[in-house]
Write a structure and sequence with these properties.
This protein has 194 residues and is mostly beta strands. Helix content is 14%, strand content 39%. It has a single domain, classed as Electron Transport, Fmn-binding Protein, Chain A (Pnp Oxidase, Chain A, Roll). The chain has four helices and twelve strands; from the N terminus they run ααβββββαβαββββββ. Strands 3-2-6-9-10-5-4 form a seven-stranded antiparallel beta sheet. It has a three-stranded antiparallel beta sheet with strand order 1-11-12, with no helix packed on it. A two-stranded antiparallel sheet has the order 7-8. Strand 11 and strand 12 form a beta hairpin.
């Protein structure tokens, strides 16, 4: 099968890459999807690493606990990060064109809870009182002691229903070689030894 891809160098501003001659399976496209509750219940069984997505722009900082982060390619080094459109961090990422993915260690569960809105009366920039923060290259806040930090510039934004999908290129990384990973499974945080 010959497939064509749009050349990203010849696209009008705001266009996305896509296969031009691919079509969804018509029979499957006509069928209903599962309910959002069924989808959420099934996803509870998908163990995922826990991150904090952080961003800053013109003196404002925002962040959120997130599990919807995925490596895309190593060359160039790219990640995709999904952020709900209704959170302040989404607007700050759009304005700054940068974000940091902070991959949490198990000893950072309290930071994860603060950025997930699970600590009473802690919201907005008060979340950054949890943990030690600095900057690498882009100006996005970077959490010290994370298992890994990916300081990124945003290169494309996809509108995906309730979320923005930020395609990012990694500008700088930090990592630590000790500590257990923090994961989220079945509604709770858990530790996974290295």
């Amino acid at each position: 099968m010959n497939t064509k891809t749009l050349d990203p160098n010849n696209l009008p501003n705001g266009s996305i890459n896509q296969l031009l001659d691919w079509q969804p399976n018509e029979r499957l496209a006509a069928m209903p999807t599962v309910s959002s509750d069924d989808h959420k219940y099934g996803m509870r069984h998908f163990a995922v690493g826990v991150t904090i997505i952080s961003a800053a722009h013109e003196g404002q900082k925002a962040g959120l606990t997130a599990t919807a982060v995925c490596s895309v390619t190593a060359e160039p080094p790219r990640l995709v990060v999904f952020v709900n459109k209704n959170v302040q961090a989404s607007d700050i990422i759009l304005s700054s064109g940068a974000l940091c993915v902070n991959v949490l260690a198990s000893d950072q569960e309290e930071v994860a809870k603060a950025f997930a809105g699970m600590v009473k009366d802690v919201q907005g920039e008060a979340r950054f009182e949890y943990g030690q923060w600095r900057e690498l290259v882009t100006g996005a806040p970077t959490l010290d002691g994370s298992l890994a930090n990916f300081d990124c510039r945003v290169v494309k934004v996809f509108d995906e229903s309730t979320h923005h999908a930020f395609l990012c290129e990694v500008m700088s990384t930090c990592e630590r070689n000790d500590g257990e990973a923090l994961i989220y499974l079945n509604g709770g945080f858990r530790s996974v030894p290295q």
